[in-house]
Amino acid sequence: MSINRVQLSGKDILEKDFKTAMRGYNQEEVDEFLDIIIQDYDLFKQEIDRLQAENEKLRKNSTEQTRSRTPQPTSQVNYDVLKRLSNLEKAVFGKKFVESSE
Length: 102
Hints:
The protein contains 4 helices and 2 strands. With 102 residues, it is mainly α. The longest helix has 42 residues, at 27-68.
């Protein structure tokens, strides 16, 4: 929905004054104003429906993605940590420390 297509704001509706005719308000003026209000509300309803459908689609996709994720194996992470630790020991203590611990 383009915001430029909306013709009225809440303030416009609140501040609208109708001219009075001999027997009250000018019926044609009131009808024209109400037609604009109806068009705006129809646009809002369409946008709300579209956004609700989009939200539902995103929720379903999010749920499916969460279910399809497989947990990473922890043994791989442990191996990487041990290898890094070994390299750090070599750098800090030198080659002699590593050879004596083996």
